[in-house]
Amino acid sequence: MITDYKKIQHSALELDEKHRAELAKKLINSLDQQIDEDVEEAWLDEIKLRKAEIKSGKVTPISGQEVHKAARELLKK
Fold it and tell me: Against a cut of 0.70, is the pTM above it?
């Protein structure tokens, strides 16, 4: 089994970038097959809460570009 894994790994790493990315995506997707209903429900509740906060004016959304800029500044420190 270990020998097979090493052969597969070696072959995969010899693929061009496009095919490695495609394979990686398929492998990751194969790990995400099971949906945890509690987690899904918690995310939906969080989405509803954030949407209500934005609509009420309690929270002002900022752009992704602003978030990235702030993150870069924090990383410089």
Answer: no
